[in-house]
Every structure is written in structure tokens, then in C-alpha cells.
Write a structure and sequence with these properties.
single chain, globular
Length: about 140
């Protein structure tokens, strides 16, 4: 899943991880990937999208290192900036439930179930959060 540079970064403190990822992103020639929005292709680099991808990678790295508190905070920050992103909702809900933070997971699980009522995973998370909140009858 991770290349050798990313595995090396996992063994470093979070600031070193962030700096390593930022350096890797800056060093990658975007034009080589066929990105039409690179300066070399006459377009513009979407700095916001690059920052967002870096923040996602940080959250994933925290999870890989089993630092679930920091992973939750990272996904919550992304969700606050992009409130309609289902992947962020799902990650916050999943990690909050796993950490026993059902007050955080409950409203997100309710929203996810409203968006996709047939999704068994989100219905299970909602049920777990309701039980933990002693709201079994809902």
C-alpha cells in the first residue's frame, strides 16, 4: 500500500511526516502524470486540491500508525471544510464509533443513513451509536 518513502515517513514524528509528504508532492512532476492543469501544460495547479490531498494522506497516515485520536481530528477538519463529502463523514463516523465517541458518530451516522438508507455499514454504525447513547427505541 505504501511505497518505501511513505513507510519511512511512518516511523517519523508527525511534523517530519508532513514535511516529507509536502516535499514529495512538490517534487512530483505533475505534467508527467498527464495533468492538463500543470504550468508545463499551460494550465494552473489547483493548490487547494493539493492541500486537500495532503490532508487526506495525513489522516490516512495517522490511521496507519494507529493514532486514532489524531486521525479523527484530521478527518473532522476535512469534514468541516467539505461537509457533503461522504467519505469524510464515513471516516469520522467509523473512527468516532471505534473510539466510543458515539456523540460525535451519532449525527453523522443519521445523516449517512438518510443519504443511503440501504447501506448496511452505516445502519449498523447508527444502531451502535443509538445503543451507546441509550436511545435503543429509535
Amino acid at each position: 500500500m505504501f511505497n518505501k518513502h511513505q513507510r519511512l515517513a511512518l516511523s517519523r514524528p508527525p511534523l517530519a511526516v508532513a514535511l516529507t509528504l509536502a516535499a514529495q508532492l512538490l517534487a512530483q512532476p505533475l505534467a508527467a502524470a498527464g495533468d492538463p492543469d500543470t504550468p508545463e501544460a499551460g494550465g494552473k495547479v489547483d493548490v487547494g486540491a493539493e492541500i486537500r490531498r495532503t490532508q487526506e494522506k495525513m489522516a490516512e497516515l495517522y490511521e496507519a500508525k494507529s493514532d486514532m485520536q489524531k486521525a479523527l481530528a484530521a478527518w473532522q477538519k476535512l469534514l468541516a471544510e467539505h461537509p457533503n463529502e461522504r467519505r469524510y463523514m464515513d471516516n469520522v463516523c467509523r473512527i468516532a464509533s471505534d473510539l466510543g465517541k458515539h456523540a460525535i458518530a451519532l449525527p453523522i451516522a443519521q445523516r449517512l443513513v438518510n443519504l443511503d438508507p440501504k447501506n448496511a455499514k452505516t445502519r449498523t454504525r447508527l444502531a451502535q451509536a443509538l445503543l451507546a447513547a441509550k436511545r435503543e427505541k429509535e
